[in-house]
Amino acid sequence: MPISEQAAQQARRLLQATAKTGQLKSRQSRADFGGPDSYRLKVRRIGRNYPFGSDIQDGDFGIFLGLHDEGYLVALQTLVPGDIIGYEQFHSLAALRAAWELD
Question: Would you put residue 44 in left (φ > 0), alpha (ψ -120 to 50) or beta?
């Protein structure tokens, strides 16, 4: 879903619907999103020049919301102060991992 006020409102509703608990475990890599009860993880878009690249923009950071009816979701955030501005959905966890990694 593109970045918009409507998408941001939907993303905030989805974030509120995302469980706040889950079993914590050590991550083995930036691609290790954990088990099926891993939620609310900070993620960043793959392929950007972090931390100070000129190609970094709003929507390159987000919060992994896990699996919802719409699919696997990432709530998109602004760079500063981290407001939610929309979300992206993926049909599989593999597709999400191809675009996002743990921050």
Answer: beta
